[in-house]
C-alpha cells in the first residue's frame, strides 16, 4: 500500500465508522452565546468556565500589552524573547501555588509533551490513569519510557503496577479533573502511593485551576497535595491560552537546559503575558464567578435528574450526558442545535468505544434561564 493509499484508507475508514470530525467556524462569541454559520446558539461547549475570556479588564489588558510590547516576543526565551514581564509572571504563579518555580509554555499540550520528553529515559516507566488526556498519552507514546495505564481513579490498580520491578525511574501521571468525564482524581492516595515507591507525580490540572480550591488554586490545593510537577493551563478558566509547569528549583534548572520545547520555540507574546497577569488577578479575586459557576452546576444537576438521560457522576463544570451509541449522540447534539443550544458530541477515539456522550460544559456566564433552555431541549429530545 502506498503512503497516499494509506492516508485515503484511514480517512475512508473513519468516515465509514461515522467518526468523521467536522470543524464549525465561529463568527462571533459574547457572554454565553456563540454565532456559527449565521445562527446564534447558547454555548454549552466551551471551557471558559468563569467567563473571563470576554471580561473587559482582560481584553483591555491584552490591547494595552500589544501597544506597549508589540505583537510578538520576537525570539525564543533563550535568545531575546524572555521579558521581565515573563520572569515576574512566573514568580507570581510560583508564589501563588506554593512552588519554587514556574515555567511558561505556549499550550498545555506543549507543556505535557515537553516535560515528559525531557525527563523520561530508556528503562523508566510511566504509570498513568487510563483516561489521561491525549497530550499526555502522545507524550508517553513518543518517549523511550514504558507506559502502563491503571484503571481510572483506582489507586489499588496503581499500587499493583508500582509493585512490579523497574530498573529506572517511575512517573505517575493523572489529572485534577478529567476532561471528558468531569470527575476528580483521588490525589491524596495517588501522592501517597507514588512517594511510597519513590516515584514522581505529575498532575495536569487544566480543568481545576481557577475553578477549585481557595482563591482558584486548583485541585491539588483543594486536596492539599503538592505533586512534583503540576501543569496548569490558561485556555480554560483563565480565558486566554498558554500553560505553566510548577516544580522545584532543581527541576526548573534542568528543564531550562534540556527541554527542547522551551529552547527552540518562540516565546509567548509579552502582550499575552500582560493579559495573563490580569487574568490571574481576576481568578485570585474571582470567588463571585466561582460561586456562580457552582450554583449553575448544582442547578443543572438538580433539574437534570428529572430527565430520562444518564448524567455522569461529576461535580465539575463538565457535565457529560452518557449515551453510548455514536450515531444517537450525534443525533441528540443535532436536535439540541435545532433548539438553539450548542453542545459537543464526543465519540471514540476521544472516549472509549461504547461511551459516546454529550459534553455539556457550564460557565459562570450562564444564567438560570439559559440552563432552563438546555434542560427543556434535552427533555424534549430524550423524552
Ligand atoms: N490537559 C488537559 C487535561 C486538557 O483537557 C487539555 C485541553 N483540552 C490540555 C491538557 C491541553 O491544553 P491546551 O489547550 O492549553 O493545549
From TrEMBL:
Query: Which reaction is the catalytic activity of this chain?
Result: 6-carboxyhexanoyl-[ACP] + L-alanine + H(+) = (8S)-8-amino-7-oxononanoate + holo-[ACP] + CO2
**What Pfam families has UniProt attached to this entry?**
Aminotran_1_2 (PF00155)
The GO biological-process annotations, alphabetized, read as:
biotin biosynthetic process
Q: Which residues bind substrate?
A: 21, 133, 350
Pathway(s) served: Cofactor biosynthesis; biotin biosynthesis
The chain residues annotated with the modification N6-(pyridoxal phosphate)lysine are: 236
Family matches, as InterPro entries: Aminotrans_II_pyridoxalP_BS (IPR001917), Aminotransferase_I/II_large (IPR004839), AON_synthase_class-II (IPR050087), AONS_Archaea/Proteobacteria (IPR004723), AONS_Proteobacteria (IPR022834), PyrdxlP-dep_Trfase (IPR015424), PyrdxlP-dep_Trfase_major (IPR015421), PyrdxlP-dep_Trfase_small (IPR015422)
What does the annotation say about its assembly with partners?
A: Homodimer.
Give the protein's recorded name: 8-amino-7-oxononanoate synthase
Can you name the source organism? Answer: Izhakiella capsodis
Amino acid at each position: 500500500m502506498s503512503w497516499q493509499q494509506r492516508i485515503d484508507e484511514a480517512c475512508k475508514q473513519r468516515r465509514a465508522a461515522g467518526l468523521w470530525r467536522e470543524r464549525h467556524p465561529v463568527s462571533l462569541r459574547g457572554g454565553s452565546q456563540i454565532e456559527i454559520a449565521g445562527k446564534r446558539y447558547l454555548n454549552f461547549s466551551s471551557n471558559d468556565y468563569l467567563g473571563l475570556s470576554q471580561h473587559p479588564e482582560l481584553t483591555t489588558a491584552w490591547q494595552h500589552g500589544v501597544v506597549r510590547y508589540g505583537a510578538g516576543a520576537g525570539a525564543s526565551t533563550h535568545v531575546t524573547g524572555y521579558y521581565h514581564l515573563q520572569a515576574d509572571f512566573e514568580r507570581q504563579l510560583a508564589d501563588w501555588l506554593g512552588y519554587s518555580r514556574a515555567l511558561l509554555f505556549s499550550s498545555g499540550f506543549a507543556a505535557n509533551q515537553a516535560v515528559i520528553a525531557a525527563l523520561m529515559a530508556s528503562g523508566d516507566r510511566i504509570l498513568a490513569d487510563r483516561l489521561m488526556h491525549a497530550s499526555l498519552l502522545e507524550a508517553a507514546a513518543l518517549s523511550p519510557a514504558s507506559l502502563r495505564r491503571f484503571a481510572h481513579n483506582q489507586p489499588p490498580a496503581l499500587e499493583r503496577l508500582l509493585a512490579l520491578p523497574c530498573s529506572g525511574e517511575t512517573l505517575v501521571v493523572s489529572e485534577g479533573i478529567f476532561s471528558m468525564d468531569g470527575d476528580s482524581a483521588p490525589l491524596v492516595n495517588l501522592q501517597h502511593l507514588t512517594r511510597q515507591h519513590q516515584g514522581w507525580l505529575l498532575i495536569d490540572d487544566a480543568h481545576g485551576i481557577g475553578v477549585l480550591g481557595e482563591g482558584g488554586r486548583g485541585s491539588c490545593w483543594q486536596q492539599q497535595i503538592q505533586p512534583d510537577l503540576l501543569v496548569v493551563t490558561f485556555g480554560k478558566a483563565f480565558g486566554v491560552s498558554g500553560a505553566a509547569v510548577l516544580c522545584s528549583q532543581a527541576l526548573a534548572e534542568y528543564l531550562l537546559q534540556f527541554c527542547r520545547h522551551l529552547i527552540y520555540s518562540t516565546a509567548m507574546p509579552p502582550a499575552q503575558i500582560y493579559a495573563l497577569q490580569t487574568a490571574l488577578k481576576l481568578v485570585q479575586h474571582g470567588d463571585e464567578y466561582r460561586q456562580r459557576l457552582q450554583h449553575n452546576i448544582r442547578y443543572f444537576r438538580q433539574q437534570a435528574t428529572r430527565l430520562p438521560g444518564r448524567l455522569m457522576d461529576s461535580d465539575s463544570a463538565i457535565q457529560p450526558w452518557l449515551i453510548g451509541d455514536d450515531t444517537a449522540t450525534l443525533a441528540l447534539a443535532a436536535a439540541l442545535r435545532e433548539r438553539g443550544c450548542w453542545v459537543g458530541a464526543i465519540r471514540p477515539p476521544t472516549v472509549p468505544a461504547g461511551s459516546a456522550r454529550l459534553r455539556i460544559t457550564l460557565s459562570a456566564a450562564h444564567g438560570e434561564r439559559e440552563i432552563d433552555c438546555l434542560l427543556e431541549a434535552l427533555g424534549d429530545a430524550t423524552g
